[in-house]
Amino acid sequence: MRIIISGGTGLIGSKLVNELAADHHDVYVLSRSPEKHTLPAGVTGVKWDGRTPEGWGHLVNETDAIINLAGESIAGTGFLPSRWTPERKQRIRDSRIQAGEAITKAVEAASSKPGVLIQSSAVGYYGSRGDEVITEEALPDSDFLAQVCQDWEQSTQAVEKMGVRRAIIRTGVVLSMKGGALPITVLPFRFFAGGPLGSGQQWWPWIHIDDEIRAVHFLLENEAASGAFNLSAPNPLTNRGFGKVIGQVLQRPFLIPAPAFILKLALGEVATIVLDGQRAVPEKLESAGFNFNFPDAQSALSDLLR
C-alpha cells in the first residue's frame, strides 16, 4: 500500500512508520522539518506547513491510505507536563484542526481518492465519567480536551461523503518507555517513592504501544471497520490499581501519595490528564475481531519494565 502519515515522528507515529516500512509499504511522512528526522529505508519525508495541501497534496492521487496523527502534544515536549497557557491551548487545538482540514482539502482535490483515512483522537473525548464503563456509544463531554477531540474528529469528517472509509482511533494512555506517561509514572518507584496520584480512584484506560500499532494495522486493512474505536486495553485500572502493578513488577513499595492539590499547584489545569480519567473499553474493536497481545496491566508492564 501507498500510505501518507501526518504526525509520523511522534511516539505512536515513529513506531508505526517503522512497522509499515518493515512490511514493505510505500510510506510518506508529512513533517514541518523532515530533514531533522532519520526515517527508515523506503520512507520518504515530505515537507508541509501543517495547514494546507501545498507541496504534498498531489501525492493523494496515488495513495491507498492516509493516517492523520498530527497535533501538538497535550502534555508538552518536556519530561514534566507543561502548563496550559491560553496560547498553548490554542496551539493544541489549531494544530489538530488545521492538519485535518488540510488533509480533507487534499482528498477533495484528488481525482483518485484513498480507500481509507485513519483519524486520530483520544478517550478524552468522553471527559471524566467516574466509574461509568465507557464504550464508543457514549456521548462526548464539554471540557477542553473533550471539545478538542470532537473538533479533531470533525476536521476530516467530510471525506466520508467523498466515498472514503474513515476509522477514528480514540486512544488511551499509550504505554512505552520511549515516551508518553509511563517513564514519568515509573520514576518515583525507582526511588522507592511510588504512590497514587490524587485520590488514585481515577480510571486509566491504558494500551501497550505494540497493541496500539497492531490496532491501527487492523483498522487499516479491515474494510468493514469504520467509525470510532476505543484503542485501550480491555482491562482498564484505576490509578491506584495501575500503580500497585508497577510496584509488583519492579518490586518496589506503593506507599507515598501525590496529593491532588500539590499536582494542581505545580501543573495548573494540565493536571487533569493525571487526576481525571475514563473507564473506556474497546467494545467495538474486539467485536470487529481484534485480539490484544497485552490485555492486562501485569503482562504489559512486565514486558515494558523488565
Write the layout of secondary structure elements.
Blueprint (H helix, E strand, L loop, with lengths): L1 E5 L4 H12 L3 E6 L11 E5 L17 E4 L17 H24 L6 E7 L10 E2 L9 H11 L10 E7 L1 E3 L6 H9 L12 E2 L1 E3 H13 L5 E5 L5 E2 H12 L9 H8 L4 H4 L3 E2 L2 H5 L9 H9 L1
Helix pairs in contact: 1-5, 2-3, 4-6, 6-10
Q: Kindly state the mean pLDDT as a whole number? A: 95
Secondary-structure element series? EHEEEHEEHEEHEEHEEHHHEHH
Total count of helical runs of at least 4 residues: 10
Low-confidence stretches: none
Strand line-up of the largest beta sheet: 3-2-1-4-5-7-11
Major β-sheet, in short?
7 strands, parallel
User: Nearest-angstrom radius of gyration?
Assistant: 19 Å
- Number of structural domains: 1
So, CATH architecture?
A: 3-Layer(aba) Sandwich
Instruction: Specify the CATH homologous superfamily.
Output: NAD(P)-binding Rossmann-like Domain
Q: Helical content, roughly?
A: 25-40%
Global shape = globular
How much of the sequence lies in strands comes to 15-25%
What fold name stands as the CATH topology? Rossmann fold
Total DSSP E strands:
13
Distance between the termini: 35 Å
Q: What is the class in the CATH system?
A: Alpha Beta
Structural class: alpha/beta
What does this entry look like structurally?
The model has no long low-confidence stretch (mean pLDDT 95). By secondary structure, the chain is an alpha/beta fold. Helix 1 links the parallel strand 1 and strand 2. The strands form four sheets. Strands 3-2-1-4-5-7-11 form a seven-stranded parallel beta sheet, with helices on both faces. A two-stranded parallel ribbon has the order 6-13. Strands 8-10 form a two-stranded parallel ribbon. Helix 4 packs across helix 6 and helix 6 packs across helix 10. The chain has one domain: NAD(P)-binding Rossmann-like Domain (Rossmann fold, 3-Layer(aba) Sandwich), CATH 3.40.50.
